[in-house]
Structures are given as structure tokens and as C-alpha cells.
Amino acid sequence: MPNPFPLDLTDDATAAAVHRIGRAAYTVEAELIGFDGIPALRESLTDMRGRALTWLGAVTPDGTVAGFLAWQEEADGQISLDRLCVDPAWFRRGVASLLLRHALEELFPDRTVEVTTGADNTPAITLYTRLGFIRGADFSPAPGLRMASFARDAGTRAAWEGGGTRRHP
Description:
- A hairpin with a 6-residue loop joins strand 8 (156-158) and strand 9.
- The longest helix is centred in the first third of the chain and has 22 residues, at 12-33.
- The chain has five helices and nine strands.
- The protein is of the alpha+beta class.
- Residues 160-169 have low confidence and may be disordered.
């Protein structure tokens, strides 16, 4: 099983792997939500590397990147998840859960975290809900695209097994 590890996108091989995985994962999401205009599908490697994001990878012992999480810290300290992608070869093996749990528990346990995903992306919606995110309003940023917004308040802890949530004092 991969382990969470910070990713350095100045490394050419790492950046190329992240770019490839992102395109593959977003191709699957495009099929799920019926919309092929996802911006990351058209993002160049250079553009991806130029984004002001922090990158965390799920990396196997042999150095293979199985998936990644990228986020931005807002001026108010809130975290905006930009992307959570898993190599399709690693689907349904807990990689997305591993990355998100690690980030929520170890990197920003007491921060509000927001994320959006395609409103018809059932696997992502299930993951976010299971990990304590609350669904907000859906919105449509482009014709044919419906997005779901989620937030997880500072101090929320998910019951990893069973799907319930609780608040820490």
C-alpha cells in the first residue's frame, strides 16, 4: 500500500506522473458526470506546475505515485482542496481515503476544508460524506456542468468506520 509523501513538482518525473494521473482520473470523472470540459483535462504540464498548490502523493515503496491531493491555503487559514486524483490502476484500493484522511488528521486537523466535485461523481461524494464533509449548495459554473460543494468545519472528526461524524470540544 502506498504511503502519504509530499510531492515536489520541480522534479520532472514526479510532475509528469502527477500530470498523467490527473488526466487519466479526470477522464474517468468526465465520463461519470457527462461533461468533458473539466479544465484540468486541458491543463498543460507547465500550467499545472505553475499552480500555487501544495501537493501530497500516495507513493509506493518503489516510488510509484498512485494518487495525489493538492490544495491551497486561503488568506483566512481555510483549506481549499483543488484536486484529489487516483491513477485508475489504483481505483478502489483506498488511495483517495488514505490521502484525504492523512491530510485531515495530520496536516490540517483544526482547519475548515472546502472542496467541489461533479454533482454526479458518486465515488467522490461518498468519500467526502464518509469523511465528515457536509454537502452545500450545488451550482452550475458552465452549461451542462453541475457541481457539488462540500465543507468540513474545523474540529470535525469523522468516524472512519460507520460513516458518522462527531465534533471535538
